[in-house]
Amino acid sequence: MYSIIELNMINKNLDGGNPSEFYITTVAGVGMGYQVHFPSYIWNSFSGDGGPGIRAKLHGPTGVAVDASRNVFFVDTYNQRVRKLDTSTGIIKTVAGSGRFGSWNLPNGSVYYSGMMEIGYEGDGGLSTIAKMYDPDAIAIDALGNIFISDQANTRIRILKPNNDINKTYNISTLIGIQVNGIAVDASRNLYIATNDAYIVKIILNSDFTVNRVIEIAGKLWVDISDDGRMMPSGYDPSPPYNVLNNNRAKNVYLGTPRSIVVDPSGNVFFSDSYLHVIRKLTLNPDGTTYRITTIAGTGVHGYSGDNGPGINAHLNSPSGLALDPAGNLYICDTGNHRIRILLSTGIIKTVAGNGLKDMYNNGVLPLNDGGPAINAGLSHPTGIALDALGNIFFADRHNQRIRMLYPPPLPENRRAVISLEATTGRVALRPAPRPAPRPAPRPAPRPAPRPAPRPAPRPAPRPAPRPAPRPAPQPAPQPAPQPAPQPAPQPADQLTINSRITGGKKRKTRKLRKSRR
């Protein structure tokens, strides 16, 4: 199983190594192939609840967060919902928002109207799935599973509290009235927010989630809190010059458009400034109440450059989402460059995902490169980003209408993990491969007692094949030798003599017969 420590080892190997040290896959969203923001399209851009996330329709996803169980929560902005992807099953569902943000039943052609239009804000005190939200954006989760959402167009931070029921539902309420681009929460449940009005504040909450104090930590801000809980800036003066200052008291520094915000365990605050194209760090001073600000990546001029060099010399383009790992490496959504970059704890910056091409709108080809090196993948305006406890990185590929995941390449075989995305169920599984059992030291085998050699059974002698008898050579028949004619011997009286007749001058032989006695 991959651990954060193993991921950090990989990150260290990125120093001078191959920037394609991550692989990429899609975990939610089928994509749309084009981008439409007109509200009439919203009704056709939502589907998939209760089924595989990779078959669901998303529309403009932005903020991403991961809970302690590695479930991925993301804001489906133009669908006016917050959705959850269960990474153990791949199933997606809505946890907040009904999808209604107002009435836009417009016919074709020119439309003339006057009067008031309903803006979708309702639902506090009830189930979160029937509440109205209007273009939610940022999201953060604390250690207890409470979810903080920027209901941006409704100018509120709303909180989802788990009901701990079998259906895992949430109740929704408004925490404070403010228009927020980014939200972070620390281990003490303090909120850090980046606002549209170019300041960073820290909100200290009571145990019942009411606001205790609001502390300005960066920007120029005077704050009033109205009776209905809205925090209203007053006397804000973003006077020029708009230069990027370093190592100054944070309250005296102009901020452009702070976007995403994260906090490390030491209380240092990192935020992206998309207007000034930089990443900045707020370091708590020894007095414990004030911060100093430094720029850690970006020059203040948009562009794309600087890989394998110091982050402060690199060019970024409208950076947004940020995520920190325990080793202090900072992951950056370089939104305008369509890339994910990493600022190592050493200060070196590298690209880890995205080839900078987004030709799906021009040629109709989307080079997702799922299952391959992330450096070759086509991204389009990545925004929110978050890490799970295993070192996998989830981010919103916003204009590609997808949630995507970066995962480390295979480690050596004895530490290898297997990641699979099953197309039929959409399940994303990170399973440890079986580790081979340790091999015991070889022991000499015991020598068996000598046994008498077995006697072989007698085998019958092989029978020779029958051989044909030799044929004797033909011999000429013997010719009888000529014999003289026998002379008749004198016969006794008791014998009968048969004389041969003489015919033709020849004499016949005569035979003497002896009378037999009976």
From TrEMBL:
Region (Disordered) spans which residues?
425-518
Molecular function as annotated in GO: ubiquitin protein ligase activity; zinc ion binding
Source species? viral metagenome
GO BP annotations of the record are:
proteasome-mediated ubiquitin-dependent protein catabolic process; protein polyubiquitination
Looking at the record, the residues that make up the Teneurin NHL domain are 46-101
- Name the lineage: unclassified sequences, metagenomes, organismal metagenomes
Repeat as UniProt keyword: yes
Q: Does the keyword Cell wall biogenesis/degradation apply?
A: no
- Name of this protein: Teneurin NHL domain-containing protein
Keywords in alphabetical order: Repeat
Positions with biased composition (Basic residues): 504-518
Query: What ranges does the record list as Pro residues composition bias?
Result: 433-491
